[in-house]
Design brief:
- The relative contact order of chain A is 0.12.
- Chain A has helices spanning 6-13, 17-24, 32-45, 51-58, 74-89, 103-113, 132-140, 164-177, 193-208, 225-237, 250-263, 296-312, and strands at 63-68, 93-98, 120-123, 145-148, 158-162, 183-187, 218-220, 244-247, 272-276, 290-293, 322-325, 328-330.
- The first copy, chain A, contains 12 helices and 12 strands.
- A 6-stranded parallel β-sheet of chain A has the order 2-1-3-4-5-11, sandwiched between helices. In chain A, strands 7-6-8-9-10-12 form a 6-stranded mixed β-sheet.
- In chain A, helix 1 (6-13) packs across helix 3 (32-45) and helix 6 (103-113) packs parallel to helix 7.
- The first copy, chain A, is of the alpha/beta class and 336 residues long.
- The radius of gyration of chain A is 25 Å and the shape is elongated.
- In chain A, 44% of the residues lie in helices and 16% in strands.
- The interface between A and B is large, with 54 and 54 residues.
- Chain B binds a DNA duplex (30 and 30 nucleotides) through helix 2 and helix 4.
DNA sequence: TTTATTTACTTAACCGTTTTCGTAATCACA
DNA sequence: TGTGATTACGAAAACGGTTAAGTAAATAAA
């Protein structure tokens, strides 16, 4: 009943623990016949190595941590799928740590990671300001960190992003071409890299078409769905309501639909909508939603790949790569 | 640069490692003044304990594993949110292990867990047959296991499910009341507990209304979206196509919509659809989707709570609870 | 004053694997 | 036949935190 350890295995085999350990690791120092005996006995006794003993000794946890705001979001869950695919392939485990968009929680998680719980970190920052200190500490300790999607611009780490600025530009330009002149831009946080980039793209499109940018058109939203719907209804209830909306976050697009439905507003008749979204149901919505579709799965894969590349290098933070994977504008009925 | 260990901390403080350890654990054996000194020095040196050393010695990992088929699914991702909320509260970490619906992968993951990587396991089985052996082994080793949603009926573990049979009954009954007489039931696996239950509920409703059950109406689907759409189009293209469809899995409902769209079939005119689904967009689809909405977040919370209860007990598998949290039928336009 | 008790620490032995350094024994080669 | 490699294994010391057992000093009880 007491767990079968490598020493128990060794005793049964009349061997030393060292030999068994090496045999299990398929070391060249061990004869084929011994390896076979060990493997067989291990299977017979149902031996499973204690990962913590191993981690302690090797200073490797065979685990990566994914730090992100939430998982109930198509983009993030698809990204996790991509990350996990790579990790599983490399024999690594995935620790999912949710920040719930709280900077404090994020910091606490990152600080804990200093203990070596994970060999590397994938992170998509929360919407409150990310403290570069924790990240810097990790880097100093030689723990590779790769940002994805929501990156921290000031930091010199590997990053995987999509072409946020250009995507927002395309979305805005598309709306303008559709006749919109008063476009609201919904965002969840102004100190998020992706927000900056996307707002820049939006501004650029306006400028190019000679539309004056009005700071009041940048609408900061919250993480409370009902608050947002309330806010949106208020905005859309006004006489000078926008004739176009860009929802820079998946959830916000859904909330715009809800607000419009409750107000009896027609999309795209009364207001056109485009959302940054990875919803599989985008094309099935009423009306189908024009989206900027991010390559979520691919971004997850790419971030994980970058992380493992860094883990392979002795020079920990060698991979100061920035990867940009383009998003796609998919025009559907909500704008046409 | 070299990690600051408890011994280094101790040396700096002119104390023994034992004292520091106890001080950090707020042991009553240590004086207040020493505790304060230790805490301050620990903060100053930015000490972070090595979780693996601790896990090795204490035989506790402060980690739970969530084993499930995928994460890119509203039900599962919401459930994870619920699980994580509880785990974070208890100071535990969450290891997410995806089986991708492969029994072999599931077995491998569970077998690895024997090593003690996680203190407890939450699992929603994959659609291929789950091998009770791995679970039994875990239980023998005293690792508590809680099933949620996709449970293993033969096993005597704690379980959290929804009222699958009754939900399916309600969905079927609803369709019949709407006039359907030829109802197809889409499933992904026939050896899944939830499939059994749901099919039973479906049969029961038919029987009660004097409609003969036709085994051919149980449509086994795959995990390939395009395969399913193809299959569904074939089915819906026939003259004697069903006049009602129950999609017992979230993704399948979406695929029914796609198939109908491609065939130009009208929902609910040509065929009525109800789906087991937690999509936030259900009410925004075209037409809005009648759903059996499962309490995903709550189920996650409940499962985690049950697990922690078991972790609290010395008698590991004391909690052979079965919790049933009811789902809700939300009638929308796809059936009316 | 002597004896118990409490307080505040220390020592040392773990936990289970890995790995460095040996060391016999076998083999190759001049 | 002696020297150097090579092969196959073992002893023991890590890794870093925890904890049982022990101890010296201070305090309380007799």
């Amino acid at each position: 009943m007491g767990n079968v350890t490598i020493r128990i295995l060794a005793r049964e085999l009349q061997l030393s623990a060292a030999t068994v350990s090496k045999a299990l690791a398929d070391s060249h120092e061990i004869s084929q016949s011994t390896k076979k005996r060990v493997l067989e006995k291990a299977a017979a006794l149902n031996y499973t190595p204690n990962p913590y003993a191993s981690s302690l000794r090797r200073k490797k946890s065979k685990t990566i941590a994914v730090v992100l705001p939430e998982v109930a979001d198509s983009f993030f869950s698809q990204a996790i799928d991509g990350i996990e695919a790579i990790a599983q392939d490399k024999g690594y485990h995935v620790l999912v740590c949710l920040t719930h968009e709280r900077a404090l929680k994020e910091q606490a998680i990152l600080h804990e990671m200093l203990g070596g719980r994970a060999d590397g970190i994938l992170i998509s920052s929360c919407s409150e300001t990310t403290d570069p200190a924790s990240i810097l500490e990790l880097q100093e300790k030689g723990v590779p960190v790769v940002f994805f999607d929501r990156v921290c611009e000031e930091l010199d780490t590997a990053k995987v992003v999509t072409d946020d600025r250009n995507s927002a530009y395309k979305a805005s330009d598309h709306l303008i071409r559709c006749g919109c002149r008063n476009i609201a831009f919904l965002t969840i946080s102004e100190n998020l890299s992706i927000s900056h980039e996307r707002i820049e793209g939006y501004k650029h499109a306006l400028e190019e078409r000679g539309i004056k940018f009005n700071p009041a058109d940048i609408i900061p939203c919250t993480h409370q769905a009902d608050d947002n719907v309330h806010l949106l209804k208020k905005m859309l209830g006004k006489k000078d309501r926008p004739d176009g909306i860009i929802a820079s976050v998946e959830k916000l697009a859904v909330q715009v639909y809800q607000a419009c439905r409750e107000l009896g507003l027609n999309i795209p008749g009364d207001v056109r909508v485009v959302g940054f979204s990875n919803l599989v149901t985008a094309s099935l919505l009423n009306p189908s939603l024009t989206t900027i579709t991010q390559p979520a799965f691919e971004m997850g894969r790419a971030a994980a790949t970058l992380l493992f590349k860094a883990l392979g290098n002795k020079s920990a933070d060698a991979a100061q790569n920035v990867l940009v994977i383009p998003s796609e504008l998919q025009v559907r009925d909500s704008t046409s």
